[in-house]
Amino acid sequence: MAEPSAAEQRWLQAAQAFARRALPAREGPGGAAPAPVDAVLRCLRAAGGGDLPLGYSFTSVSDLLHQQSTPCCSHLTWSTNEFKEWARQGQGALPMQSSLPRAYLILVGYLTDGRQEEKEKLVDGCLYVKDNTGIIPCEILHFELEWLESLFLFPSWAYVPQTDQGAKGYVEILVDPVPVNALPKKVLDTIPVIYPAAAEPLLASRIPCKKRSKLSVAGELAKLSPLLCIHHKTFFFLFLKCFVSAVGVPVLVQKPNQLAWHHVFQLGHRYIITGLSMSSLKKSGQRVFVTGVSSCLLPYCAKQVKEQPLDSAWQGKSPQSAFPEASVQFSDSSELGVEQERPGSTKESKIISYVGTVTKILNAQAGLFELDNKVCLCLAYQQLLNSAHGLRPGACVKLIDVHLLQKPLVSFRFIVLGACLNSTVVLKSFSRLSTFYQPTVSSGNLYLQLLFRYNLGMPLYLWLVSLLETFEERFSCFFGHRRLLHSSVHQDRGAAEKFLVPLLQGMVSGREETRDIYNEMLAKRHQCPLQQYWTLDPPCQAPSLSKLCCMAKQKSWDDFCPSRLLSPSEVQHMGTQELNRSLAWSYCMFSAGSFQPRVVLLGVLRVSSRSSSLHLQDKSSTLPCVISHKDGSPFANTALIGSLLQVEAYQLVVERFLQSDFPSWKQLANVEHVREKKNSVYVQFYFEDALVLQAPEVQIQEGPRSRNSSSLRKKDDGGSASELEIPEAKVLKLDDPKPDIERNESCQRDQSSTGKNSCVSRLFLVTQKEGLMLRNYQLLGEGNGEGQELQRSFQATVLWLGRPQFWSRPRKTVNLPELEETNCHGEEGMTQQEALLLFMGKSLRWFPFLHLDGLYRFIVPHCSDLEVFDKLCFPPVPARFLSRSCCPICLPVPDTWHLQHETWISCLTERQLAAGSVLTGMEQRISSIPEVLSNRFTGSLVSFPGEIVERTLCASPKNEKPSMSLSLLQQKGSLLATDHSVKLSVSVAPSSPVVLDVYIAATYLQHLWGLLPGAKVLFQNLERKISRFHNVYCTYIASSCISIMSLPASRLPLLSSPAGEASSSSLVFLSNLQLHLQNMPQARILCHLSCVLTLSVQWVCSLCNSIFKEGKCTRHNPPCPSHIGVRQASARVLVEDGTGEALVLCRNQHVAAVLGLSLLEWEAVQNCVQSRGSVSIQHGEATGTGCVEEPEDLLACYLRSLCRSPLICRPILLDFSLDRKPSKIPQPAPLQLRNFRCGEAEFVSQVQPRPSLLCLNVEEVEQKALCCLNSERIRRTSSHC
After folding, report:
1. What is the pLDDT of residues 185-197, one digit of tens each?
2. What is the pTM of this model?
3. Would you state the torsion angle of the CA atoms of residues 349, 378, 176, 187, taken in this order, to the nearest 10 degrees?
4. What distance lies between CA 199 and its chain's CA centroid?
5. Beta-carbon contacts of residue 987 (< 8 Å; ≥ 6 apart)
6. Does the keyword field hold Nucleus (predicted)?
7. Which of 436, 451, 356 lies closest to 396 in space, CA to CA?
């Protein structure tokens, strides 16, 4: 024999080293077995035709598990061309996937059916490859029992790691392994057996099982159940049937050393099982054959068996067969037929067989796989104890007796093949593609636990999977997969379970059934959860926030109709600017039920220092939110930041911003006039309607974080809005960032002496809060102030309560020891210290939590200096400008400080109020709307609550426009033009006639949410003003602030009803008009129309409001290009009801009603006016009214005659309101001299001036109705006398 080369010697040395490390010699029956390395080399030479594979290297199981991180395959005996052809064939189903890369590795090991755990062999039904370095699961298509515990060379195999790089993989054995040592051959004697036809009646025999001897049964394998593990016992069932009929008997295999049989069995093959006895299942009572310790599995050979006659111990009564021939028939259909669908009705699933290729792993944990790009295979109803080894894209599977379900879920696009416990799944060939392995784990699997707990059918299970997939995708970046999908057995439920369990309980309520797995496998009539199904229309959905916003925006514009936003009676008389301004800003509100199916809102509560507002966030997007309490108190709980909330009662608001150039109302249906559409979406809800599914990982009440612990801030890296933060309010991050202010150094120096967890806290009361604004704040040490940009900031005036407190660790206080300390020592004057807190930068996140009359606590982490609050303070202006020593000091709030809300001043006990006597009278002066409107009110800054009854976009007055620099800075993020203002009409109650107008410049609106009709709002520090017409109104200024106290009702009309369309006004007298209008916004009178004082009918230009004549505008300097006119009309009439007189102003369509003209007659009058431009008529009594009567023509004569006609003077029902704003300050009116004539006598008397009324509706009164109304009026007058 020739001497080996140097390369071969090195290779042999490596082989020897591998054998010593991984393949120790085993003791044989005759002493020490030969060295394994020699036998291995002999096998390698035989496989390679006498040559050693010098291009290959040995790999141990440990090396494979810890060093191989990508899928690979090894083919010891293949040429390069053979491997390429093998790889090419494997890419047929998935041409976009790459094939397995070839690795030149030699795998040698023992095949075993268990693994060692705590010095005991644990048998779970899986096969393993092991050596002295470790053990690894394996899958093999053909297996023999003689292979167990034998050393094998694996010529072709593939290693498949998990998708999780830190997890271990498994080995796919592609061809039969080669035994290193010759396997012993068993010599079998003739075996006496019985066949299923004779054994089947024995299962119904009444003879006790203990008196019977063991049997050996021979038959063809007809059915094989999956491996099951119930109560820590692993077992499986099989059916042996006769060779000539379908009569079969069930056999239970549950001995640990026999679980490997499951890998040996092949459907249609013939076997002998020895040592069988009979047993009854406890729960179902069914009788089956059971293997014993001495039972053996043998291949059937007709020459080695003889039929055993039954002795007298086995004779007994033989009832009718429990397994008739039809009960075990197999379906050989491989086609997916299309069944006729009956929506909503219960359907029967078909049982078929199918062969297909795995093309995608839909959800490994849920047991969902895609076959042939068109079918969904669901294995969730089986346990998959082998963790779905081998089910990778590219693998071929054979499905036997699976259920075919067509469209079980409306939104599910696949036909579903469901495998129950009666189904068999056979892996036909392994995948040749380089795909990772996604294990299906039963323990802690929330998908499977909920499936089995509620015995869900396929439609409900697929809906559950879709909800869980969306839930996990949205929030795993915040809480991690394990915390989010934590399934509880003896502990608290995780977030996903809290969300899903109530939904499932509502769906399965009243039809809960326990799954009987034994009947499912053994009953003569098959019953399982997949047998019947219906097409489920999901009751709810939980889309991502980005998808929800898109749905809301799409729905808002789909429902958008410009003509519906405007009153039909008013839109015809609007000019172009007024028309387009009325359409520029609108909103629509959606609830959960506005979507189909209804939408459940889920999101992590976060706060943004950039926008200083609350948000709900998931992985896809953020959604601004407004949170209120049902008792009217503001939301201030900073401990909830970072919590996962579920809300089902909410209002999703879409603010629509439209830029349009509609010439007139006639073109509203033409979308070409819409130049730009924008949206702003936010949600508002009551905190009482929110459910906390998951709290943050660490809360301040539970103590601080360690320095090495991870924070939620790190988990937010995958989010789409990085400016959203969980402040130290929730997660107290002890890694102290670089301080922004140098004076923090004194605090930082003391950390080492007191420990990492110490902190300083101080209690304070908020007495005033100002709004978010760009201000010219400049901290000390930042330069001389030249060229400094304005900073977004807000400020609050607070009152310090007690001394600073030193805490060894953060904690939640209960009794407010600062107040108790003040009471004990009697140091009341010490707490009379005010401070002006300045919030800038990241401290702006506290803006939505800081509210008036709230008691809060600042917590300074990593600090022991009790003077830290004094050291960081400075005067608001340089000392050389100070003229008063009592000016409050300023404290810029550092970014690292934590804010904790304690309570409200109204919630303090009497003892606490007595202790903190300085709190008495500290509440800010809150006025009422009537007080603000009173002429006795003297304040310039006012605070008051009220309900928004109307929201109107109007042009800003010239004197109210902000400066250009401020506008440019503030319009970033604002969707309204800076020359617009919003007028909020605020009232004490919706039906109250007392209304106060609040004007807010558009530049301020980007920080304000929830200003909708119906919302109750607390306005703080508004500027009270009086117009030249003596109307009181308020404006939002830099020091103003708004808090939402209550949300609007769920259903609000988009528009108020046009005046007079649905009037329910009370019938009153003119004599007591003022008394009635104090309690109601409008009223009704039965009156007599005395005369028409003035009448004006005109056409005006839609652009410039000049007279529009003969189809064009009459303005010449500069010329107006408009070719569209708008018709307008007004009339002032005199009415009386026997108790007094009044002047009534009528506009547009009410003028025709006063004149008694029909619609056609009024249309003809307006068309005649169009050629002239305008016509004005005045009565002789109305001198000095400013109306200029037109020269004589036919139209003027007609209108004058009509106004003076006796037909005009008639009884009418008039709905009206006062012709002035309710906010107008009443001016003293002098008495007027009036002439009265009675016969020939004439009297002169002083009378009150006639009230001015605004017509809302005019109704004609017939004679019969007039009598009834007069009778009612007389009766009511008598009852009041």
Report:
1. 776 788 889 999 8
2. 0.82
3. -50
4. 60
5. 929, 946, 947, 949, 994, 995, 996
6. yes
7. 356
